[in-house]
Amino acid sequence: MSAQTDAVASAAAVGPPPGMQVRLSSNESPFGPSPAAVAAAGTAVAEAHLYPDDQSLALRRAIAEHDGLALEQVAVGTGSAALLMDAIAHEARAGGDVVAFARSFVVYRLGARNAGARYVEVGTDGPATGERDGYGRGVERLLAAVGDDTRVVAIDNPGNPTGAHLTGEQVQALVAGIPEHVTILLDEAYHHFARGQQGYATADELGLEHPRLLVLRTFSKAHALAGLRIGQLTGPAELVGAIDAWRPRFNVTAASQAAAISSLGDREHLRRCVEGTLAGRTRMATALRELGVPFTDGLGNFLTIELGTASGPVVAAYAGHGVGVRPLEPYGMTEQIRVSVGTPDEVEAFLAASREVLADVPSRG
Fold it and tell me: Residue 3: which pLDDT band, with cuts at 50, 70 and 90?
């Protein structure tokens, strides 16, 4: 890619279309943050003239206690995307390969580019049909791409934007097959929405063992703090510390730290957000099946829909109804859109628009 193409691809991968009444393009939580988190952030803003705690000690302690880890095993940053960029830059700083499944989170590719590493994409299964989900991933295919030059293997599980996932057994086989010189980035941004479904399991549930396994999570999705930019990186203390040393100083604001701590403590709000999201996802999936439009019923807070035609006019048609959905050209997916789960009213607005917008798409069965 040229620098100009990279810039276009990067810009196209973020942000909702302007002026949309219903934002279903950025995988945001429609239910808002915990009231306790909002109050804590507001209190912290009263001291905005002071620099935040550079080490984010209180937040890291809260995460460590929540996840059953030592403080030294936890780092935080401005969203999991920034932590991914830091981790890839550190681990591939001398070159080598960054390996990921095709159509994985775009930040892996951008991180490899910034590090001067070679980005290796491993093929997946084809698009969804009326009978099955799309973009299935094969562990053996990925392991075959790992060699002496591999520095990083990045796995988004569940995947974004495809919604594809690896089961717990597949993750165990993958981790067991990766050499000890390779750093594994297991990106669990959507794990709250996936637990207990279709064989999915998190790293902590599996008790995975690998000397260079790093797990990334975010407060942007189920915790609904996307606008405050907080993510976490956990793993072996020495490796976490080395990557954390590369970050900018004072990178996580005091308001963000305070909000994240309070959000971790408000488990009831988190439960309501997750349950509301899953109910909306089920409603969307049921209606799309009735329309006969193929899609991947993934384990995140979104669905990936097959159009059988260029996505641009379809995205514009939804925008005409005031509904923002995400085109996926940066992922080489020119005939697909990704639609986030909204509130019940937003879901109904999307479905009402879909009955018109998707009426004549070629993919309909």
Answer: very low
| Euclidean distance between CA atoms 121 and 181, whole angstroms | 19
Integer Cα distance of 323 and 348 in angstroms: 11
CA 259 to chain centre: 20
DSSP letter (8 states) at residue 125: -
* Stated pTM of the model: 0.94
Structure-block tokens of residue 82: 């920034």
- Phi-psi category of 79—alpha, beta or left, where left has phi over 0 and alpha has psi -120 to 50? left
CA distances in angstroms from 212 to 40, 184, 235, 238, 318, listed in the order given: 35, 6, 8, 10, 44
Tell me the C-alpha distance between 203 and 186, whole Å.
8
Distance separating alpha carbons of residues 251 and 233, to the nearest angstrom: 14
Alpha carbons within 13 A on the beta-carbon side of 54: 7
Q: Is 89 helix (H, G, I), strand (E, B) or coil?
A: helix
d(CA 48, CA 32): 23
What single-letter amino acid sits at 209?
E
Yes or no: say if 237 and 73 are a contact pair by the CB < 8 Å rule.
yes
**Cβ atoms of 107 and 93 closer than 8 Å:** no
Q: What is the mean pLDDT of residues 164-183?
A: 98
Instruction: Determine which helix (DSSP H) or strand (DSSP E) holds 218, and give its type and residue range.
Output: strand 213-218
Q: Nearest to residue 13, comparing CAs of 101, 107, 128?
A: 107
What mean pLDDT, rounded, does the chain reach? Answer: 94
Exposure pattern of 217-234 as b/e (b: 16+ CB <10 Å)? bbbbbbbbbbebbbbbbb
Q: How far is residue 254's CA from residue 331's CA, in Å, rounded to a whole number?
A: 35
**What domains appear along the chain, each with residue ranges and CATH number?**
3-32+268-357 (3.90.1150.10), 35-265 (3.40.640.10)
